[in-house]
Amino acid sequence: MRNGIAAVLIVRNEEKVLARCLESLAGVDQIVVLDTGSDDKTMEIARSFEADVHATPPVDPFHFADARNQALEFARQDWIISIDADEVLAKGALDLLRKATWREPKAAGFNVNFILFDEEGKNPTRLPKFKVFRRTLWKWQYRVHEQLTPLSAGLVIKNVMAAAIEHRPVPKTGVRVGQNEELLKISVDENPEYARNVRQLGMELYSRQKWAEAIPHLEKYLASNQGDRLDRSETMMRLAYCKGSIEKYHESIEIFEEAQKIAPDRREILYYKGVIFAKGRSVEQAVEAFEQCLAIPASSKPDWYLNVEAVWDGSAVLPELEEAKRLVVEGRRLWAEMQARKGKS
Q1: pLDDT tens digits, residue range 267-293?
Q2: Could you tell me whether strands 147-150 and 87-89 are parallel, antiparallel, or unpaired per DSSP bridges?
Q3: What pLDDT is recorded for position 345?
Q4: What 3 state SS string does the chain have?
Q5: Half-sphere CA count of 92, side-chain side, radius 13 A
Q6: Same fold yes or no, 5-167 and 174-333
Q7: Residue 336's pLDDT band (boundaries 50, 70, 90)?
Q8: For residue range 27-37, what is the model confidence (pLDDT) as tens digits?
Q9: Given CA atoms 198, 202, 204, 210 in this order, what sign does their dihedral have?
């Protein structure tokens, strides 16, 4: 079908969210579901929506790009919506995308408005994301955090920001987090030039409090000079926190200050800087950092998916500030008592 649209998914044990996703795809010309080893009702749910369902034997370690490319082979339409089971196509988006494919005949793909919710279905943030593309012009690459790569030069990507795809996740499991670390390590070994996965491995190790292991990967990513100011400030902030967590406080504070220079509108940098000051028993500096954090007006909050809402509403900062102030007062009291004892002697 000329200019037809297929939604293509790879799935595994997605019975909790798949029906919600498939319901949102009503009206597409084809739904392709490639199951990669489910042992729940995922395939049954997919068939109930008359999806074009296929299965492939489980692969360990998994390769996301290979699976996505395999799923594409079953698509019969010109255009592809790449969507995951925990995502939904927003109301009205399909009509907007159809019109875009007709009005932009030279386009090879489209960015849409990708809206991310947290695991409680709250705190949405938005970013443009490449989710709609001509099937014959692209292929997936990389084992994890895969991306579409062009099959020829000069392809044009347009924006359809009025069309939205919402990411509505369920709580992650420890098994999946562990799998992410394993796959990222393999992917970095396979494609060390792929800076995004170097960064993601550093972030994954950070999230598991493997501070020393995370540092070289975060440093390597920063040395690649990739990413915009928010992306780089986030990486610097995490690197600084890792350094502080292994008691390299001087290096840590220097990196925090560099991050502040490139993203002075971010409260998160000052908050985590204050936490590290407190860890290093520099409580007066911690108080200063927390107060500077709260002094950044909420109106300056970047519209970014890694905003920490508890920092912006103050619920994370205020208890830390009060405790740091308490320690300052206590420290001054102890100092005065010590000086008084010295005077008496």
Answers
A1: 999 999 999 999 998 999 999 999 999
A2: unpaired
A3: 62
A4: CCCCEEEEEEECCCCCCHHHHHHHCCCCCEEEEEECCCCCCHHHHHHHCCCEEEECCCCCCCCHHHHHHHHHCCCCCCEEEECCCCEEECCCHHHHHHHHHHHCCCEEEEEEEEEECCCCCCCCEEEEEEEEEEHHHEEEECCCCCEEEECCCCCEEEEEEEEEEEECCCCCCHHHHHHHHHHHHHHHHHCCCCHHHHHHHHHHHHHCCCHHHHHHHHHHHHHCCCCCHHHHHHHHHHHHHHHHHCCCHHHHHHHHHHHHHHCCCCHHHHHHHHHHHHHCCCHHHHHHHHHHHHHCCHHHCCCCCCCCHHHHCCCCHHHHHHHHHHHHHHHHHHHHHHHHHHHHC
A5: 6
A6: no
A7: confident
A8: 999 999 999 99
A9: positive
- Which architecture does CATH list for 174-333? Alpha Horseshoe (1.25)
- Asked if the model's pLDDT at residue 147 lies above 50, the reply is yes
Average pLDDT, the chain: 93
Architecture category of domain 5-167 in CATH: Alpha-Beta Complex (3.90)
| Distances 99 to 4, 104, 107, 341 between C-alpha atoms, Å | 11, 8, 12, 82
Residue boundaries of the structural domains of the chain: 5-167, 174-333
Q: Which two tokens stand for residue 113?
A: 């408005």
Q: pTM for the complete prediction?
A: 0.85
